[in-house]
Amino acid sequence: YGKNTIKFLRLHREGKKHFVKEVEVCTHLRLTSAHEYLEGNNSFVIPTDTIKNIVLVLAKKNGIPTLEQFAIDICKYFMTTYCQVAYVKTYIQEAPWQRLHENGVPHVHSFIHVPDGIRFCEVEQCRNGPLVVFAGIKDLKLMKTTQSGFEGFYKDENTTLPERSDRILCGELFCKWSYGECKDFDFDCIWNTVRECILEAFAGPPDCGEYSPSYQKTVNSIQMCILSKVSQVQIIETVLNNIFYNVVDMKNLCLTNDKEVLVPVETPYGSCACTLGRK
Questions:
Q1: CA distance 39 to 30
Q2: Chain segment 50-108, per-residue pLDDT in tens
Q3: Which residues bind O2 (predicted)?
């Protein structure tokens, strides 16, 4: 049991310069007994309102140096404070606020909400067990308008999809990775590097791109790039929800449409998923 969607903004001031982190926290506990479920005995139950207050107090006292460190602080607090807690799991996601720049100059206290992917993390711990830390990015929409195709696929009497050697590749990406033994990691640096790997593997070189024969191959390329460049990542789960675009037929308007006006196909949509780890 636990408390979901604890939302708050943490404001940190250093003189005139302000820093913000707006987060949503979900924290769940498992107790050493099930008396509350089986007998209605609540003597070991930590109220969910107390869970919410603990999260807010820790944000006030410790700040949020990184999402991962804040989640670790929450898990450690419950483990060290309450002997009846057998397991704790904390999920945190961050609203994508970025510092506003005016003519290249960073503003001291103004920010802009930029929908370029949502950062999240998840930390769990069993009593007498190690901390397990996951991090990730979700709702990251990516598109390239060429250098993508889909050919040579299996065909039978139910196949109507034509082969394409040049198409738009667009998708909404979810990536979640696990760390090995948690040491003194720079979680911010690692997260930014993983994001750069995702963009690099998806797009290819900026002057020419890189051909993608399928969404599946793109998913694998992203994972291989991350594992080759970020040694702290041990296992990575990736889901790419496909967003398709159909070319508008303009023959009745006496116009040709050489893939210049397209409409998105909302549903149904395809999805590719893969989990890849080190040996």
A1: 16
A2: 999 999 999 999 999 999 999 999 999 999 999 999 999 999 999 999 999 999 999 99
A3: 48, 242
- Whether residue 167 is annotated as binding a ligand: the answer is yes
Distances (CA, A) of 79 to 60, 70, 243, 274: 20, 14, 43, 33
Report the C-alpha gap between 139 and 266 in whole angstroms. 16
Question: Which domains, and CATH codes, for the chain?
Answer: 2-129 (3.10.270.10), 143-277 (3.10.270.10)
DSSP code for 52: H
Identity at 205, one-letter amino acid code: P
Given a contact cutoff of 8 angstroms between Cβ atoms, the answer to whether 121 and 135 are in contact is yes
Taking the CB of residue 16, how many other CB atoms lie within 10 A of it?
7
**How far is residue 228's CA from residue 166's CA, in Å, rounded to a whole number?**
29
Reported pTM = 0.92
**CA gap 56, 58 in Å, rounded:** 5
Angle at 176 between CA 208 and CA 98, to 5 degrees: 70
Which residue in this structure is represented by tokens 């990775």? Answer: 177
For residue 218, pLDDT over 80 is answered with yes
3-class state of residue 253 by DSSP: helix
- Exposed, middle or buried by CB within 10 Å (0-12, 13-18, 19+), for 184? exposed
Asked if 231 and 186 count as a contact pair (C-beta separation under 8 A), the reply is no
For residue 27, what are the β-bridge partners?
A: 3, 90
**131-153: average pLDDT:** 96
SS3 118: strand
Question: Roughly what angle, to the nearest 10 degrees, separates helices 67-81 and 48-62?
Answer: 120
Q: Which two tokens stand for residue 12?
A: 């940190």
